[in-house]
């Protein structure tokens, strides 16, 4: 007997198949585009003395030769060579031209608007070391001279690009008296292995990186610790519970789980769009279901989400949900999601609870948070850091209001889209001062503006 539903089913499966191919294709293209190597790095990469200021130059991920410059005051921009041989660019991450032009007569010398500039000679040592079952590529950059210096191991975020290629801090910090060990995470840059967001694995790799930094720094080593940015804010404290360190610095990280990050993002986005408490409470039911789906790799939560779709699917707030992953889970049927999951699932421990880890870190921790962070809303993290300070742990934090993820200032267009303009004034200087003191600066953990803190420090930022 003929199946009279077969044509409908075949059409539906064909549509799902096309959706799946689009989703998987876009995911694969996005992934390889992010991780694809850029063009050859210009030899001028490093730290430059420009009229008494230190300006770092590192390559961007663009296919054509392009550099990103960075100054301690937080100003930044891009440079690209023109037909006349001079390098010009834009402010921040904007399309606004920057008036300053560079010219290079060699890898070590050039001029900025006609004023001669030279590249600083920083001791650099390349290395390969063993992580957790993989070989990792690292680099130690030390301040000039032979004196002892604090060394910070950079634990970068979820990006799949090479930290050794693109981190400006690896040159900015040593030019101001701080050694840096930077390494490519597994599966990125020149490191072997598969890319992962498994915090446990990444923490072991960070421990191995710190051991290699100790070895290479030798008698020049002063205090040593971790700086974790964004996702690295989960990894660095975890690594600090597995090896002796002197300090931990977390920049725009979270003291909540990745699951709660998505929930907080959705809540903040709906609030910013004007939805009230009732809509946001209903949306929290949705993020609980999507959280179960992500935490169980889609084994649980799909039925609950289907029921919520029937109940709320026509509500205006439903289509406004974005978050870390909830928006994607709402927009595609379960068969497509299961097909696409291998491209998106990089081992993130969605239910990871950072609080027990943070309570085991007994060395000074400084957290620097972005007050208007859309990717990592800080409100619950602030409450939890207050709790740690009240428990007597050496945890301090400060919040840069009016900044987004990365502690960057921004402008907002009429549609609500943000364009990053620069790092916040005082942000990089604060990190430099705290790291140069090996974490032994008594910052108040609440109620003090960053600039007030900076003005109270009696340290010379230009002495290196």
Describe the structure.
The chain folds into 3 domains: 46-119; 124-257 and 352-455, Alpha/Beta hydrolase fold, catalytic domain (Rossmann fold, 3-Layer(aba) Sandwich), CATH 3.40.50; 258-344. The protein has 15 helices and 18 strands. The protein has an 8-stranded antiparallel beta barrel with strand order 1-2-3-4-5-6-7-8. Strands 9-10-12-11-13-14-15-16 form an 8-stranded mixed beta sheet, with helices on both faces. The chain has a two-stranded antiparallel sheet with strand order 17-18. The relative contact order is 0.11. It is globular, with a radius of gyration of 24 Å. Helices cover 36% and strands 23% of the residues. The chain has helices at residues 6-35, 163-166, 169-172, 199-217, 232-240, 258-273, 277-295, 302-312, 316-320, 326-331, 334-344, 354-359, 379-390, 427-436, 450-455; strands at 46-50, 53-59, 67-71, 76-81, 87-90, 97-104, 109-112, 115-119, 124-130, 135-141, 149-155, 179-183, 221-229, 247-251, 365-370, 395-400, 408-412, 418-423. The protein has 464 residues and is α+β, with helices and mostly antiparallel strands.
């Amino acid at each position: 007997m003929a199946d009279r539903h077969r044509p409908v089913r075949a059409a539906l499966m064909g549509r799902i198949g096309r959706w799946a191919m689009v989703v998987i294709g876009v995911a694969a293209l996005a992934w390889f585009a992010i991780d694809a190597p850029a063009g050859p790095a210009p030899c001028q990469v490093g730290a430059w003395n420009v009229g008494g200021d230190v300006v770092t130059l590192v390559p961007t991920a663009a296919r054509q030769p392009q550099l990103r410059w960075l100054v301690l005051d937080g100003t930044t921009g891009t440079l690209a060579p023109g037909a006349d041989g001079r390098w010009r660019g834009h402010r921040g991450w904007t399309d606004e031209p920057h008036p300053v032009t560079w010219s290079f007569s060699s890898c070590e010398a050039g001029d900025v608007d006609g004023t001669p500039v030279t590249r600083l000679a920083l001791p650099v040592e390349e290395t390969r070391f063993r992580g957790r079952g993989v070989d990792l590529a690292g680099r130690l950059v030390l301040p000039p001279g032979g004196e002892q210096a604090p060394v910070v191991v950079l634990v970068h975020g979820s990006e799949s690009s090479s930290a050794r290629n693109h981190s400006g801090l690896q040159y900015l910090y040593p030019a101001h008296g701080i050694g840096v060990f930077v390494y490519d995470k597994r599966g990125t840059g020149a490191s072997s292995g598969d890319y992962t967001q498994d915090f446990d694995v990444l923490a072991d790799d960070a421990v191995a990186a710190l051991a290699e930094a100790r070895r290479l720094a030798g008698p020049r080593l002063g205090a040593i610790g971790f700086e974790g940015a964004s996702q690295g804010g989960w990894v660095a404290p975890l690594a600090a519970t597995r090896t002796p360190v002197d300090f931990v610095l977390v920049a725009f990280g979270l003291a909540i789980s990745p699951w709660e990050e998505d929930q907080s993002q959705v809540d903040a986005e709906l609030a910013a769009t004007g939805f009230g408490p009732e809509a946001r409470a209903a949306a929290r039911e949705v993020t609980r279901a999507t959280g179960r789906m992500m935490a169980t790799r889609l084994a649980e939560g799909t039925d609950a989400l289907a029921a919520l779709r029937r109940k709320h699917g026509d509500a205006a707030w439903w289509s406004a949900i974005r978050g870390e992953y909830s928006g994607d889970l709402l927009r595609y049927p379960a068969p497509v999601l299961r097909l696409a999951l291998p491209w998106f699932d990089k081992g993130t421990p969605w239910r990871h609870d950072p609080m027990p880890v943070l309570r085991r870190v007994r060395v000074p921790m400084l957290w620097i948070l972005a007050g208007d962070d859309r990717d990592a809303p800080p409100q619950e993290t602030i409450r939890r850091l207050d709790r740690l300070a009240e428990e007597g742990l050496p945890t301090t934090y400060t919040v840069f209001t009016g900044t987004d993820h990365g502690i960057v200032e921004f402008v907002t267009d009429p549609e609500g889209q943000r364009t990053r303009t620069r790092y916040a004034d005082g942000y990089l200087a604060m990190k430099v001062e705290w790291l140069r003191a090996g974490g032994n600066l008594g910052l108040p953990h609440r109620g003090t503006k960053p600039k007030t803190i900076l003005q109270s420090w009696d340290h010379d930022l230009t002495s290196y």
